[in-house]
Amino acid sequence: MPRRLVNLFLLACTATLIATGVVPWLLPETVALPLYTVHRISGVALLLALVWKYAIVRASLRRRLRSPHADHTLLVAVTASATLVFALASGVAWTTGLVSFDRPIPYSTLNLHVFAGALLLPLVLVHSLQRWERRPAFGRLVGRRAALRLFALGAATAVTAVALDLIDPLRRFSGSRHAGSFTGNEFPLTIWRFDTVPLIDAAAWRLVVSGSVAAPGALRLADLDRMPERELDAVIDCTGGWWSEQRWRGVSLSDVIAASAPTSSASRATVTSVTGHAWSFDLDEVGDVLLATHVGDEPLSAGHGYPLRLVAPGRRGFQWIKWVVRIEVS
Asked: What is the pLDDT of residues 73-113, one digit of tens each?
């Protein structure tokens, strides 16, 4: 394979992996599903294409190390290569079940995989700028032999990706592993932004509803108890790499907002935690969003958001705001 074609192919795969590794977190699952698929396929393609890259790297290192002049681009190249190898190795280990969100260390390997991907972005950009090739022209890169090799790589990628997906049938399309379901409060406890679990006095707690509403107010738990009770089964899929389906009970977010009489210009609601963590939703999208006080037949534990947490079906776990204290309509 032409060296420039290999490098451009690996660059495209890396850029695709970084984009499809982060963007789906922000989207509803129905929209994000194809991006997760692209992420897996791009990872397999990059891994298989490293066979071509190995020959290029070996020749380049031999030439540069023999040169009497110091090559300052080597540091970035080696760091980027090590980061890429770790990202690929951790991704393969996660997919094959060699590691999980709670082993071999208490911290999720999937998070380390994500951190490596984030670090890879600036390294690849710098490395590309330092060693960008302009020849041969792009139009001359893909000859008949190169096209056949790319076709073979595509076929091998498809077969490998399908085989990897069969290893753990309980692994979700997001990559998350099953952590038990319908267990009440007995599912993993993770906190976005590494906040500590706040101790909240239920008697003093209030849910403030403000913004573009005609009747702003501060609701107590007793006020929520007088609203229509809702119950639903929903999957929480944490970006730390685990998922769990639970039965949640509480009041509808849309009912709480409706009781405050949103103005005609209102279009969004921002739900905020006592820790400051917040997320915004279009008002058209909150019909199935719950403000939960119970999981299973149990009141929420402190670690899972007592006295009130958001349950947002089809959204990633970091959008399920815990310890809710404010709803700002705008």
From this structure: 888 989 999 999 999 999 999 999 999 999 999 889 999 99
Q: Are 255 and 227 in contact (CB under 8 A)?
A: yes
Q: Angle at which helices 144-165 and 29-66 pack, to 10 degrees?
A: 130
Through-space distance between the first and last CA atoms of the chain, rounded to whole angstroms: 55
Residues facing residue 279 across a β-bridge = 271
Pick from 249, 250, 291, 248: nearest CA to 269: 291
Across 307-321, average pLDDT:
97
Structure tokens, 197:
């679990």
Domain boundaries of the chain, sorted by first residue: 3-173, 192-329
Helix (H) or strand (E) holding 235: strand 230-238
CATH number 3.10.350.10 is the correct assignment for the domain at 192-329: no
Per residue in 219-243, pLDDT tens?
999 999 999 999 999 999 999 999 9
Number of C-beta neighbours around residue 280 at 10 A: 12
> Residue 193 — very low, low, confident or very high, per pLDDT cuts 50/70/90?
low
Phi, psi of 62 (to 5 degrees): -60, -45
